[in-house]
Amino acid sequence: MATNSMNLEDIPSESLMSELLRRMKCASKPDKRLILIGPPGSGKGTQSPIIKDEYCLCHLATGDMLRAAVAAKTPLGIKAKEAMDKGELVSDDLVVGIIDEAMKKPSCKKGFILDGFPRTVGQAQKLDDMLGKQGVKIDKVLDFAIDDAVLEERITGRWIHPASGRTYHTKFAPPKVPGLDDVTGEPLVQRKDDTAAVLKSRLDAFHKQTQPVIDYYSEKGIVAKLHAEKPQKEVTDEVKKVLS
């Protein structure tokens, strides 16, 4: 927050106080290293900022981290860019290396939330090896379990007014006139990812790929299966119970 050219007395006292209070609160929190696993639309994106703030963790979204490493031209980022330019997948070792680097940031001192990784058992083993070298391990894997049919209703019911970004849901938040934006009366559109056919193929791929990862961590006894179809507040309560 404070740059070198800025004196502490120039920072508004409210900001200093809230930062101090945050640090005091964080100091008493136990360290946690978490993995979030769940299909698209299962609510991971809604819960992760809540978990991050509650336990003072850093959020490591591997896609964003890769892009950041490439943009910052770190040694690993340069390697990743070479692979991407050739149209190849970035190797597991490289991704684990980028996670390793990110974990050293001060914001990750209390631990992290990993999202989007590991997607395969091989990646999970590499991650465990890397953490093992640092003398730490994954504490909990939060499995955002939700029935495909519920997800389909959640996702295929979403409609958007492209100009404003206003979103509607045919069942949970319908527009006043079906298919039209409440404010402008213009037609609503569906994102191409939100159709049943696209969703089905994404879910099939997700189950095939991640079930073995969930099984791998289940054997270690660290998977907590959440009822992700419940309302957001209840899922948050469930997460807090699991992590307390």
From TrEMBL:
GO terms for molecular function: AMP kinase activity; ATP binding. It holds the Pfam family ADK_lid. Keywords: Kinase, Nucleotide-binding, Transferase. GO terms for cellular component: cytoplasm; mitochondrion. This is adenylate kinase. Residues 158-193 form the Adenylate kinase active site lid domain. It comes from Gossypium hirsutum (Upland cotton). NCBIfam families: adk (TIGR01351), PRK00279.1-2 (NF001380), PRK00279.1-3 (NF001381). The lineage of its organism: Eukaryota, Viridiplantae, Streptophyta, Embryophyta, Tracheophyta. Belongs to the adenylate kinase family.
